[in-house]
Amino acid sequence: MKKDTQLIHAGRAKQYTGNVVNPPLVRASTIVFDSFAELKHATVNRGNRVPFYGRRGTDTHFALQDAICELEGGAGCALYPCGAAAVSGALLAFLQSGDHLLMVDSAYEPTRALCDKVLAGLGITTTYYDPQIGAAIAGLIKPNTKVIFLESPGSLTFEMQDIPAITAVARQHSIVTILDNTWASPILCQPFELGVDVSVQSATKYIVGHSDVMLGTASANEKHWPQLREHSYLLGYCASADDAYTALRGLRTLSVRLKQHEKSALSVAHWLTQRPEVETVLHPALAQHPGHAIFQRDFSGSNGLFSFVLKQGSQRQIEAFIEGMTHFKMGFSWGGYESLITATMKLQNLRSATQWPHSGPLIRLHIGLEDVDDLIADLAAAFNRFDQAAITTPVK
């Protein structure tokens, strides 16, 4: 089936839906049994979609897990209360004291904080690496390297990683590879075809799509699924059945939403390339992006999230730019139907293995489902405020 068709049918096996269209919402903590034989069967098969205890999941959870596996190509999927929990759950499933982790330098900021503030305290060392290192990552591997973590594109600076080159090296050294696949959602990149062992997503973003649920997923290939499943369970990770149900609803419209996000974002990105204030637009679907060839090879499309770098700009100018928006709202996260904007003045503070090549402020946009002409008009007014603020504020 094509992806659009898969999105409609994934997770809708008759064992979950019965004679209705959507899998019903099943909330439970205790699962009760009519006989010792049933209890024993559930205990033996508790990792195989058999209700055993609420934290193991109900049919609502199983339906979502099946859908994610079908869409991404994994053998099993664990659910978490948010994307950051999915990242930590996946890392802690395959790391222990004394191990070494290779973490991409463009990682999502909470992932970096986890490495520096939590994993370090557990005796796990982290080396950050250039996202564009490719097969040369072999030179960073140590005898105790157990995991390589990737994020492509980076969710702030949008470097594209050569995923197949890195996973090939990892397999040669029996190292687990974990990819944060949130930007691509389950349908724009097929991580297991690229050699990834575990694919992590913040389902809070495009899967849910409406900015009202926190949810994470981690799917794994057949070799690594049992360890991911058991460690995540033992660490106490679980997700609400209500949130799983909402995510299933979001999946059904994911493709049509992404197509509109992509179309509008590309229109805005091309418009931004013509602005005299802009140094560069960081969108991997643009031909001038350094990772465009990798994007075309490994991804089937783009979405609404990208950044651009200004040639210069004071704090006051940036505040003038983003505080007077009509349609773009200031806020973290992305993937909902609304447009969002954030700004970062100093990117080098978030790097340790690479030198950020730009000195101007970075502005990240999530292009929502509003009319693109209204969004461009909103940005044009923002640039007017930015330029006006420069007249009264000397550039430092």
Describe the protein in words.
Keywords: Lyase, Pyridoxal phosphate. This is Cystathionine beta-lyase. Pfam families: Cys_Met_Meta_PP (PF01053). InterPro entries: Cys/Met-Metab_PyrdxlP-dep_enz, Cys_b_lyase_bac, Cys_met_metab_PP, PyrdxlP-dep_Trfase, PyrdxlP-dep_Trfase_major, PyrdxlP-dep_Trfase_small. With 396 residues, the protein is of the alpha/beta class. It contains 13 helices and twelve strands. The protein has helices at 3-9, 14-17, 36-44, 59-72, 83-94, 109-119, 163-172, 225-234, 241-252, 254-273, 292-298, 315-323, 372-392, and strands spanning 76-80, 100-104, 125-129, 145-151, 176-180, 198-202, 216-220, 278-282, 305-310, 329-330, 340-344, 362-366. The strands form two sheets. A seven-stranded mixed β-sheet has the order 1-7-6-5-4-2-3, sandwiched between helices. Strands 8-9-12-11-10 form a five-stranded mixed β-sheet, covered by helices on one side. Strand 2, helix 6 (109-119) and strand 3 form a beta-alpha-beta unit. Helix 5 (83-94) crosses helix 8 (225-234). It is globular, with a radius of gyration of 22 Å. The mean pLDDT is 95.
What is the rounded distance between the termini? 56 Å
Q: Which parts are unreliable, with pLDDT below 50 for 5 consecutive residues or more?
A: none
Portion in beta strands: 15-25%
Mean model confidence by pLDDT? 95
Structural class determined from secondary elements: alpha/beta
Shape: globular
